[in-house]
Every structure is written in structure tokens, then in C-alpha cells.
Design a protein that fits this description.
- The complex is a heterodimer of chains A (115) and B (109).
- With 115 residues, chain A is mainly beta.
- In chain A, 0% of the residues lie in helices and 49% in strands.
- Chain A has no helices and 11 strands.
- In chain A, the strands form 2 sheets. In chain A, strands 2, 4, 5, 6, 9, 10 and 11 form a 7-stranded mixed sheet that branches. Chain A has a 4-stranded antiparallel sheet with strand order 1-3-8-7, with no helix packed on it.
- In chain A, strand 7 and strand 8 form a beta hairpin.
- The relative contact order of chain A is 0.33.
- With 109 residues, chain B is an all-beta fold.
- Helices cover 0% and strands 57% of the residues of chain B.
- In chain B, strand 9 and strand 10 form a beta hairpin.
- The radius of gyration of chain B is 13 Å and the shape is globular.
- The interface between A and B is medium-sized, with 25 and 24 residues.
Chain lengths: 115, 109
């Protein structure tokens, strides 16, 4: 297994456009997390799935953000009507749960720039 | 919300010296902690983890110490190398994961 992969690695869009990112987790992992990271900050939790069920969403997450994991494998994160404040690195991580040591493994991230 | 913070935002060490990166957390219910290393333009890379029922765990050149009394976590890197230069994050788990701001480690050759 090559680890967590994300696509695209970079995305430049104009304000108001919709964007969609994809994450492919490590194959045997049942949990998948989305985070947002801005410069100089740690990753900020957005949402996570266990298999195909979305178990939690951050209260800070705008309704312009939606995520899916339809078959319990890859996941997509869509941002509608992008704003300049959405510019950030979007990170995906996967893990196996249950596990006392639920080690998350991160992908390389998708860097979004909204002009 | 949770508060996971780092005592020092930057740290510079001489190559070959030991490095210590500290982290304070606020949630007594957190049961699991992870240290990550993040290089510029890359995703965080797992370094070492520790469960709340432990106070020390060692890996290759790295040691994590957990002091639940004062809610403090530290990462010790032995014989620091230039390749260790990166930003280091601690994360705690209480249902979801919470990350600190990060400490930037610079290794001086």
C-alpha cells in the first residue's frame, strides 16, 4: 500500500467557483478524516467518517462544505461558492478503529488558493 | 473547544545535540497522544504515539514523555540531525483529534 493519496495536489480557483478534492485512504483503514491547515497553524478538524457514515462535523464548518464517502473507501470534499478565506491546505488522514492506538496517517494534502 | 499548545514556537539546536519539544494540553479525558513531523509542503508524518496509561515511550532516536498531572507532553530527539528540521505537532484524542500550533525546529550544521 502506498499510503494516503490526495488529488489534486494544488488547486487555484476564482472566488465563487466550486471545487472538489479526493482522498484515497490506506485500504484497510475504516476511518477517514478531513482537516484544514493554514500557514503557521496545526491541522483543524473538519469532519470524519467511519466506513461510509459521517460521524462528526466541526461546528465551525460552513454549510458550503460537504463531504462524502459513498462506498466506505475514497472520500470527496466539496467546497461550494469558494471564498478567499477558504485558501488553505486540505489534509486527509486515515486510521483503523477500534484501536487504543488509533494512529492517523496523513496524505500530502491539497493546497487551495482562491483568487 | 480543546486547547493543545506548545511552549515555544521555534527551537534551534546544534547538530548532534538533543532536542526537546514541549506541548501542553487541556483535556483530562484525552486518552491518546501523537507527535507528528511536518516538512514544508507535505502532510504531517507520524513519529511516535503514547496512550494515557503510559508515561514514557521510546522509538528510534525519539522518546515521548507524558505527565498527566500537569497535562504536559514532550518529544525528545536524540542526536538531532539536519533532516530533523521541520515543524513538530502534538495531537490529543478525545473522540476527535486536536492539534497544537506547532514548533519549528531548526538544526544548525
Amino acid at each position: 500500500d502506498t499510503g494516503v493519496s490526495q488529488d489534486p495536489r494544488h488547486k487555484i480557483t476564482k472566488r465563487g467557483q466550486n471545487v472538489t478534492f479526493r482522498c484515497d485512504p490506506i485500504s484497510e483503514h475504516n476511518r477517514l478524516y478531513w482537516y484544514r491547515q493554514t500557514l503557521g497553524q496545526g491541522p483543524e478538524f473538519l469532519t470524519y467518517f467511519q466506513n461510509e457514515a459521517q460521524l462528526e462535523k466541526s461546528r465551525l464548518l460552513s454549510d458550503r462544505f460537504s463531504a462524502e464517502r459513498p462506498k466506505g473507501s475514497f472520500s470527496t470534499l466539496e467546497i461550494q461558492r469558494t471564498e478567499q478565506g477558504d485558501s488553505a491546505m486540505y489534509l486527509c488522514a486515515s486510521s483503523f478503529y477500534p484501536g487504543l492506538q488509533e494512529t492517523q496517517y496523513f496524505g500530502p494534502g491539497t493546497r487551495l488558493l482562491v483568487l | 473547544g480543546e486547547s493543545v499548545g506548545l511552549h515555544l514556537p521555534t527551537l534551534s539546536v546544534q547538530e548532534g545535540d538533543n532536542s526537546i519539544i514541549n506541548c501542553a494540553y487541556s483535556n483530562s479525558a484525552s486518552d491518546y497522544f501523537i507527535w507528528y513531523k511536518q516538512e514544508s509542503g507535505k502532510g504531517p508524518q507520524f513519529i511516535i504515539d503514547i496512550r494515557s496509561n503510559m508515561d514514557k515511550r521510546q522509538g528510534q532516536r525519539v522518546t515521548v514523555l507524558l505527565n498527566k498531572t500537569v497535562k504536559h507532553l514532550s518529544l525528545q530527539i536524540a542526536a538531532t540531525q539536519p533532516g530533523d528540521s521541520a515543524v513538530y505537532f502534538c495531537a490529543e484524542r478525545d473522540n476527535q483529534f486536536y492539534f497544537g500550533t506547532g514548533t519549528s525546529l531548526t538544526v544548525i550544521p
